[in-house]
Specification:
Layout lengths: L8 E5 L3 H14 L4 E6 L2 H11 L3 E5 L7 H11 L9 E6 L3 H5 L7 E4 L4 H17 L16 H21 L23 E6 L2 E6 L3 E7 L2 E6 L3 E4 L3 H4 L8 E5 L2 E4 L3 E6 L5 E5 L5 E4 L11
Helix pairs in contact: 2-3, 3-6
């Protein structure tokens, strides 16, 4: 069983100071022994401090400057050091409505609605205490179902939770606008890209989606790699992902999405890291631990 220090530790990432102060105050009342080792206001700082301090619990606002809470969670899973101890328990703090939160009650992480209600926070605290006592960094949300998890299964559960949260974020209205979906009327599926329009000077190249080997985030652009050439498009990866067929295009890293039919083989080294060899391409693509579960023998 994993052992923890006597005083559990937590990080709070929330860009609204009043909400952060309220959450910290109520945590202090409900969980006096909890030590908040860092309170930050953006996703990059959350990632940096979590890697440096390795708290046992991270409260992540879904929408923050820099990296969102989802992106910070993905980056944390990718960058968490081998031998760095148990991966933190993640609690997302969200402004999305109640039915959306209920849809994820049995995922690997917990959720709090803004403004945070004290009874709901008390339930969350009890769940966190139960998981910490069991030494399960990623278990089912129900305390009765909580059980120690292997690092691989924890990453797989986190990946599923992040994927579903990303789908939720794209299907609901942004803060300040009205939500268009209801529990009885699910949102229409997103329109799938069939052609990439890559502009170079005054010329627009039309690249059929089937010819794309992989996409790679590059600063403010995304590289579109085909067998013939490469293109740059000024589209964020987060905007591109919902338009891709998830059965054909697999995200294998925070900044890399590859078309499955171009993957020749996946090789795991002695440290457990996976790299992909592509058909007709010399480069190898790294697979982060968050997406390693995609490559299992049948």
């Amino acid at each position: 069983m994993t052992t923890f220090p006597c005083a559990p530790t937590a990080l709070i990432a929330e860009d609204e100071p009043l909400l952060a102060a309220h959450l910290r105050q109520e945590l202090g009342r409900l969980w006096p022994e909890l030590q908040v080792v860092a309170q930050v206001g953006d996703g990059q700082a959350a990632l940096r401090q979590a890697l440096a301090l390795r708290p046992q619990v991270c409260f992540l606002d879904i929408r923050m400057p820099g990296l969102s809470g989802l992106e910070a969670a993905e980056a944390l899973a990718e960058d968490w050091p081998d031998g760095g101890g148990a991966f933190p328990l993640l609690v997302f703090v969200t402004a999305y409505d109640q039915y959306a939160v209920q849809a994820f009650e049995r995922q690997a992480v917990d959720y709090l609605l803004k403004p945070v209600a004290v009874p709901r926070l008390a339930d969350c605290v009890q769940r966190l205490k139960t998981r910490l006592a069991l030494g399960a960094p990623s278990a089912q949300a129900s305390p009765a179902a909580a059980a120690p998890a292997t690092p691989a299964s924890g990453a797989e559960e986190l990946a599923r939770a992040v994927e579903q949260l990303r789908a939720l974020a794209s299907s609901l209205a942004l803060p300040g606008t009205a939500a268009t979906s209801t529990p009885s009327a699910p949102p229409a599926p997103p329109v799938r890209l069939e052609v990439i329009q890559a502009q170079v000077g005054h010329t627009v190249h039309l690249v059929p989606i089937d010819e794309v080997i992989y996409f790679e985030a590059a600063d403010k652009y995304v590289r579109v790699v085909t067998a013939e050439r490469e293109h740059l498009i000024r589209t964020a990866m987060r905007e591109l992902l919902p338009q891709l067929d998830a059965q054909r295009f697999w995200q294998v890293h925070r900044g890399t999405v590859v078309q499955v039919r171009w993957i020749e083989r996946a090789v795991r080294d002695e440290a457990g890291r996976i790299s992909l060899s592509l058909r007709g391409r010399p480069e190898a693509l790294s697979v982060s631990r968050l997406y390693a579960h995609l490559f299992k023998g049948m």
